[in-house]
Structure to design on (545 residues):
């Protein structure tokens, strides 16, 4: 790459991912809080419904997935909020790079620090709810396919509400209904596996959702950002 | 329907049928009244504003 | 001759195009809608009366459900209109986003409260119908559940619209949201359907088998058309009000508002 010429979209995206990861590591506490929330919510369930292994085992896939949904939602604002506040987002919007690609890069960076830990914590929390070992693979694979979809759909929601004061509750109202298919397919993959049934159906559907979200969400979020930036 | 009594009792389902139709009536009434009231308020507000602009 | 033939469609298209442009002008829309609303409104009222008379009085009781089935005459039209209003809202929003037609933004916004009302009505009547049929006010039936999610989507739309102060910005943001929703609705519907069969929920009843008798079908169709006309009438009332608000600074609004 010659000096002075603007970098290609991929190079720009890679630089953006590196920058965002650096920033996230400087604000470690903020990034860790949603994970802590994930753990606490799952811990509260046995305290609420009782410690019987059979009940908890039946509920485990749903509880882990609902908690993952909530934790993912809590961390969403981190995708654009601070960059909106300090004006970096406007710089991105007027840069010569396609905004959708930059959005995808930001979502990727965000997923690496907020979604991937959920995937890794999932089996630990599942085990605490007596989820049988044979279901762990489906749970992890489901989370691996599903959490990026949560980040991608969430990015549209954040892009729409980033200019709104106290947009947090509003964001959950916009985004949670859109999460329904991910929750259904993700939780049933894990519970099918626990029951010894076939898991390829729900996992394939999650994969299809991921493909759809990867292609449609970045341009939608980019359009929403341009509207929010005015 | 053979009689008025039958119409009112709805073959024992009066509560479900008539509650449904009452909710229907309330929602439709709200959807008629609210936009009309809102329109009158807006027109009054705009008229006041125009009067202030050209005394 | 050949030349002449080519000219005619061109003028037709031009005329159609000018008509579109005139329709998109707020003043023309305001006047046209003002003339259409009474027609839509009264037609809706007449059809509604006929449908209610046919459905509640003339139609015989269902041989399986007795008179409880009569909820269908409001439940099914409300459920259909709840989806129709969302698609109309997203379609108008799309036109507003792509061609920057302000009028489409106004129409999209006017659809939201009506659509939410129809969704709420479908949910309430579905629940009241469910009690005598299923024995419970709420079962996690696939259609009821999708309808509930649809209500959340409407409420999200309305909340986002209320949260953004700048009207143009709010219209564009809500249009993006509606488009995302319209892509997601079939997926939500399919996933809920799939989830429902997976869980072996309560057996969904079929209304009197596959063939519905004419005495029941005619009032149902009357109600469907009446709901649609009602939707258009009240949507236009809402849209007209917002056109007035948006065009305060133009001369024709001064004339309209000035006259008592």
């Amino acid at each position: 790459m010659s000096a002075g010429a603007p970098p290609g979209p991929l190079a720009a995206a890679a630089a953006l991912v590196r920058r965002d990861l650096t920033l996230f590591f400087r604000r470690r506490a903020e990034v860790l809080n949603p994970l802590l929330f994930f753990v606490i919510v799952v811990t509260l369930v046995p305290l609420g419904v009782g410690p019987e292994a059979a009940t908890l085992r039946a509920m485990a896939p749903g509880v882990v997935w609902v908690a993952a949904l909530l934790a993912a939602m809590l961390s969403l604002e981190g995708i654009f909020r601070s960059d909106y506040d300090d004006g970096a987002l406007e710089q991105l919007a007027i840069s010569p790079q396609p905004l959708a690609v930059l959005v995808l890069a930001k979502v990727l960076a965000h997923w690496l620090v907020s979604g991937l830990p959920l995937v890794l914590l999932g089996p630990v929390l599942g085990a605490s709810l007596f989820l049988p070992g044979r279901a762990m693979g489906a749970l992890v694979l489901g989370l691996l396919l599903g959490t990026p979809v949560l980040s991608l759909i969430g990015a549209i929601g954040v892009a729409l509400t980033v200019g709104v004061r106290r947009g947090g509750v509003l964001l959950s109202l916009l985004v949670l209904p859109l999460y329904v298919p991910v929750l259904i397919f993700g939780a049933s993959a894990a519970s099918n596996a626990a029951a010894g049934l076939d898991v390829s159906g729900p996992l394939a559907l999650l994969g299809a959702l991921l493909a759809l979200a990867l292609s449609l969400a970045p341009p939608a979020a980019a359009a929403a950002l341009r509207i929010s930036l005015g | 329907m053979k009689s008025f009594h039958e119409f009112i009792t709805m073959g024992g389902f009066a509560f479900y049928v008539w509650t449904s139709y009452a909710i229907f009536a309330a929602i439709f009434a709200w959807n008629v009244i609210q936009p009309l009231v809102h329109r009158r308020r807006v027109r009054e507000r705009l008229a006041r504003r125009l009067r202030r602009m050209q005394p | 001759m050949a030349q002449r033939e080519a000219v005619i469609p061109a003028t037709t298209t031009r005329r159609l195009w000018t008509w579109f442009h005139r329709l998109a002008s707020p003043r023309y829309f305001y006047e046209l809608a003002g003339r259409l609303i009474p027609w839509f409104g009264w037609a809706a009222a007449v059809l509604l009366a006929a449908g209610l008379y046919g459905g509640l009085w003339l139609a015989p009781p269902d041989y399986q459900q007795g008179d409880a089935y009569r909820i269908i005459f409001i439940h099914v039209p409300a459920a259909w209109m709840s989806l129709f209003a969302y698609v109309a809202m997203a379609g108008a929003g799309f036109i507003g986003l792509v061609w920057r037609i302000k009028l489409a933004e106004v129409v999209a916004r006017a659809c939201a409260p009506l659509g939410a009302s129809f969704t709420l009505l479908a949910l309430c009547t579905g629940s009241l119908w469910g009690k005598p049929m299923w024995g419970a006010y709420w079962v996690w039936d696939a259609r009821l559940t999708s309808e509930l999610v649809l209500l959340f989507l409407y409420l999200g739309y309305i909340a986002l619209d209320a949260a953004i102060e700048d009207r143009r910005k709010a219209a564009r943001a809500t249009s993006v949201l509606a488009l995302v929703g319209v892509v997601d609705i079939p997926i939500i519907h399919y996933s809920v359907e799939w989830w429902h069969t997976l869980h072996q929920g309560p057996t969904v009843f079929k209304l009197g088998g596959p063939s519905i008798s004419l005495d029941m079908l005619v009032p149902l169709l009357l109600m469907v058309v009446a709901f649609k006309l009602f939707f258009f009438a009240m949507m236009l009332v809402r849209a007209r009000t917002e056109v007035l608000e948006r065009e305060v600074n133009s001369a024709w609004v001064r004339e309209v508002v000035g006259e008592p």
Summary: Chain A has a mean pLDDT of 91. Chains A and B do not touch (no CB pair under 8 Å).
